[in-house]
Amino acid sequence: MTLGARFTKWGLGLFIFGVFLVFGIIGHYCSGARWPTGEVFLKNITLWYACPWTLSVAAVQAGGLGMVALGLAHITAARATGSRRTGHETIAPLWLCVVGLLGVFAVGYPGYFVFDVIWPSFYYSPIAAGKNAWLLGQAAFIGIYFVGAVLMFNIVRHELNAIPATA
Known about the structure:
It is a single chain. With 167 residues, this protein is mainly α. The chain has one domain (3-161). The chain is built from 7 helices and no strands. Helix 1 runs antiparallel to helix 4 (54-81), helix 4 packs antiparallel against helix 5 (92-108) and helix 4 packs parallel to helix 7.
């Protein structure tokens, strides 16, 4: 299986996983916040739209679609050039993207409950130490995804550069 095909398959799977995670957000909206919301939270409500999992779900969905786009671009460019270098491709970009998206999910969604045990109401009060640690954990995994996406972008860019220009 080519790197492009694997990127596309994983991206589609992660996108669908993100769609599934939306049910948790809907459940949160139906049941309401677990803790009373503080005044600082209410001033910043448009950023989160009152659900702590919005960032991680959006990252998984957008990241999955990004993987699909990179994978399909790689497949298309490889077909246009007749390239069959599947044995020489590195799989590091794929696994960096997958680990990045699953990590942002783990910290942002189930990890929210762990952080809430350590700093009760950290999200709604907000408690800066807990909120910042939680957000930085997600940011670290988004960074891992970004490194994988940039590596894959460079692979795709080189494939696209190999397509002969016709006038």
